[in-house]
């Protein structure tokens, strides 16, 4: 399948394009969606004040030839260009957020495959939020095109690198996950 054919698929057709093939997206669980909602809400207020825009999980990006991805959240810090009405976005956002899914296959995709594809696409800031480990990792794309760790945190209120004036309250995020999502069976038995 070509990037254009993938981009022209109906909105309700799931999947990402990997090596020219349509692959199934992970099924998001409640912790995943709670994190997406929290992060998107936080980023939207920050970006709007700066004339930026935040897009949700159905925005399609033509990241490399033969690869089309849908990030959980993406942010354009300023809107110097208009986005296409339909089809794939071919301009990298400034920031992409992926919430790490619990399966090893999906975790590898978020931590390895998408990391390299987003770097090749030119995404400057890449956030990995892991609800299972309760961590936030922020990677910055260097001038040489290599992602390097800019922040790794699990708790507290953090000043977000690359987003002047933005703070993210990780304690509030994990509290919200705990309040909205039931505990996994056997979770209280862990050491």
Helix vs. strand class: alpha+beta
Helix content: 25-40%
Number of strands: 12
Q: Enumerate the spans where pLDDT stays under 50 for 5 or more consecutive residues.
A: none
Succession of helices and strands: HEEHEEEEEHEEEEEH
Q: What kind of sheet is the major sheet?
A: 6 strands, mixed
Q: Which outline best applies?
A: globular
Report how far the terminal alpha carbons are from each other.
Answer: 47 Å
Radius of gyration: 17 Å
Strand content: 25-35%
Strand order in space, largest sheet: 3-6-7-8-9-10
In round numbers, the mean pLDDT is 90
Count of discrete alpha- or pi-helical segments spanning 4 or more residues: 4
Explain what you see.
- The protein is α+β, with helices and mostly antiparallel strands and 191 residues long.
- The protein has helices spanning 3-7, 30-48, 104-121, 170-180; strands spanning 16-18, 21-23, 53-55, 61-64, 67-69, 73-76, 95-99, 125-130, 135-141, 147-153, 157-159, 167-169.
- The protein is built from 4 helices and 12 strands, in the order αββαβββββαβββββα.
- Strands 3-6-7-8-9-10 form a 6-stranded mixed sheet, with helices on both faces.
- A hairpin with a 4-residue loop joins β8 and β9 (135-141).
Reconstruct the topology from this structure.
Blueprint: H1 3-7, E1 16-18, E2 21-23, H2 30-48, E3 53-55, E4 61-64, E5 67-69, E6 73-76, E7 95-99, H3 104-121, E8 125-130, E9 135-141, E10 147-153, E11 157-159, E12 167-169, H4 170-180
Short description:
By secondary structure, this protein is an alpha+beta fold. The chain has helices spanning 3-7, 30-48, 104-121, 170-180; strands at 16-18, 21-23, 53-55, 61-64, 67-69, 73-76, 95-99, 125-130, 135-141, 147-153, 157-159, 167-169. The mean pLDDT is 90.
């Amino acid at each position: 399948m070509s990037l254009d054919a993938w981009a022209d698929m109906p909105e309700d057709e799931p999947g990402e394009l990997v090596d020219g093939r349509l692959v199934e997206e992970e099924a998001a669980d409640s912790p995943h969606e709670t994190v997406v909602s929290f992060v998107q809400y936080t980023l939207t207020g920050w970006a709007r004040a700066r004339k930026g825009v935040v897009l949700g999980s159905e925005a399609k990006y033509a990241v490399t030839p033969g690869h089309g991805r849908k990030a959980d959240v993406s942010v354009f810090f300023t809107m110097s260009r208009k986005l296409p009405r339909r089809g794939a976005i071919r301009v990298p956002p400034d920031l992409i957020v992926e919430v790490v899914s619990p399966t090893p296959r999906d975790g590898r995709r978020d931590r390895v495959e998408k990391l390299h594809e987003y770097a090749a696409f030119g995404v400057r800031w890449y956030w990995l939020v892991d609800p299972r480990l309760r961590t936030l990792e922020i990677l910055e794309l260097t001038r040489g095109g290599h992602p390097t760790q800019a922040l790794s945190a699990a708790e507290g209120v953090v000043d977000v690198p690359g987003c002047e004036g933005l703070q993210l309250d990780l304690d509030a995020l994990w509290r919200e996950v705990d309040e909205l999502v039931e505990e996994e069976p056997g979770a209280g038995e862990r050491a």
